[in-house]
Amino acid sequence: MKKFKQTMNINEYGFIRVAAASPKVKVADCDFNTGEIKSMIDAAEKENVQIICFPELCITSYTCGDLFFQETLQRKAVDSLLDLTGFLKNKSSMIAIVGLPLLVKNSLYNVAAVISHEGILGFVPKTYVPNNNEFYEKRWFAASHHLNDFFVEINGESIPISSEGMIFRTPFASFGIEICEDLWMPVPPSSKLAMQGADIIFNLSASNELVGKNEYRKSLILQQSGRCNAAYVYASAGCGESSTDLVFSGATTIAENGRLLAEGNRFSFNNEMIISDIDIPALRGDRLKNTNFLPLQNESMQEMECELEPVSVEKMHRKFYPHPFIPALEKEDEHLSEVFNIQTHGLAKRLRHTGSKTVTIGISGGLDSTLALLVTTKTFDILGLSRENIIGITMPGFGTTGRTYNNAVELMKSVGVSAKEISIVDAVTQHLKDIEHDINQHDVTYENAQARERTQILMDYGNKTGGLVVGTGNLSELALGWATYNGDHMSMYGVNAGVPKTLVKTLVRWIADTQMDEQSRKILHDILDTPFSPELLPADSEGKIAQKTENFVGPYELHDFFLHRMLRYGDSPKRIQFVAQQAFVNMYSSEEILKWLKVFYKRFFAQQFKRSCMPDGPKVGSINLSPRGDWRMPSDAVAKAWLEELNDKIIS
Asked: Which of 91, 217, 404, 502 would suit a FRET pair with 539, their CA atoms being 20 to 30 Å apart?
C-alpha cells in the first residue's frame, strides 16, 4: 500500500518559515548574480520558505567600488530588480529581500528591496554608512537621513522608501530591515523596529572576515535578537566578492530571542542557504509580559501590508528540545552550579535572618528529599555550621520499602547529619481509628493522614530543636498539585520550589558525580534509579514500590514540557500539543500527549489553592509558581476553555 506523506500548516500554529541566503556572485555582473538569486529562490520555494533574505548589494555585488558611480551599473541593477520581481509573479508564497544601489534624485543609496508577486513593496536604505579603514561606503552612498522623499519612481510606479524605517506586515508576522553596519551601532535601527512591532529583523550584510570576527559578529546577532525579543535573520556576502583587499565568507545566521537556530557554512564558493521556522507567538508572549515594550512616541515609521500564503510542510526546520529545564552537556557545569548556588544561598539567607542554627528535614530515600538534603549540607558548610545540626528524620510508614528506607538511612550517615527514625505506623493507625476510618480502605484519607503525620513530626521536632523545617517539594509537584495540603505541601522554606522534577534528577546526578565521595555517589545513583513514588500505599507482594507517580499523573518530562510552554511562552493548548509532538516524536504517541496534556490542565487549574499558600522558596529559572511573584491566579479559575480547545483532537 502506498503511503502518503502527511503535511502540516505551520502558520496555523504560529510559525513562519524564513531563509538566509548567500549566493555565488561575480563583481558587477548583474545578469549572473540575478540568475543565482533566482536559483536560490527556486530552491527555497521547494522548502516552502516564505521570506528569504539575500546579502547587501547582492544584485551588483558589494565590492564594485567606483563602478557604483556608473549609470550603466545603476540602470542594470534596477532592470535586474524588475526581472526578479517578474520572476516572483508566480510565487505567491514567497517574499524576497535583495540589495542594490538605488539612485534617488542626486544621491545614491545602499538599499534593501522587498519584492513579491505583488511587485516591489518598498525600499529600505542603509542607516549608518561606514567610512573606515576597510569600508569607504560614504564615497558612494548617502545615509538614510539624507533622504527627503517618501516614494521613488520605478518603471512608472511609485514605490515607498523610508528614511525612518519601514514595517512590513504579513498575515503571520511583521518584519523590519537593517543593513550590515546598522547592527554594529550603539542604537541599531532594529531596536526601534522591534519596539514598533517587527517580529523578525532581516539584515542584508557584506561583512569581511578577520581573525575572531565571526564569533563577535554572531554574539552581536544573538544579543540583538534577545534584546529585541525578535528573530534575527542575517545574510552576508560570500567568496565571490572581490578579494583585492578583503575576503568575504558568506556568513549566514538565524537567531531567535538570544538563541541560535541555524548557522550556515562559511568560505564556500557554492550557494549557501539556511532555513528555520520562527516561533512568532513565543516572541510576542515575551513582549506582552514586558510592560516597557511599547511603541515609541513621535516615531514616524511607514507600514506596508504584504500578502503571504500559508504553507504546509512535511517537517519542521527547527528542533524542539524535549527537556527545556535541562542544560546542554557543554553548559551543564555552569548552569547546574548556578541552580545549586541559588538554592544554597537562598537557604543561607533565611537561616541568617532567623538566627536558626539547626534545621529539620524529612528524608524518604526519594529524589526530592535527597536534593533538599544536599542543598542543606552545602548551606551549612557555607555558613560554617556543623552538619550535625541538620536533623534528618526518616519516617517509615505503610508503603515504605526496604530500598528507600535503607537509602535514606545510609545517605544521612554518609553526609554526616544527625539521623533520626520515627515510625508513623502506630500514630496513623490510632489517628485513623480516632476518625473512624477503616485502615484497609486505601483512599485519599489513608494517604493524606500519613503525609500530614510526617509534617507534624517535622514541625514539632523543629520547634523542639529551635530550627526551621526545610521543604522538599519541587516545581512540577506544585504545578500538578501532587502534594498533600498542609502535609508535604508545607514547610518553613522550600528549597526545591523552583526546581522542576526533570531538573531535580539531573541536578542530583551532577552533584553525585562532581562533588561526592564514592560511598555517597553509590547511594545517590541508587536513589536516581528508584521510581518516583510518595510510598503511601503498601508495597507489592515482592516488597517493591506499588504506587508509581508517573503511572497516575503521567510522565514528568511531558508535564515539565507543558509547564514550560504554558508559562514561558503563554502557549495555547493547541500549540503546546503541536510543539510537544515535534519534541517527543518517536517517544510518545499523539494520543498519549493529548491524554496527559488534558490531565495537566485539569490538575493545574484544580490545584491552584495549594500554590496560593505555598511557603517561601528561591526562584532558579525562568519559570516559577510563587503566588507572591511569577504566578498569580485565582484558586477557582475554570479550565473549560483550555480543555475545549483540545477537544479530543489528535493533530496529525
From this structure: 502
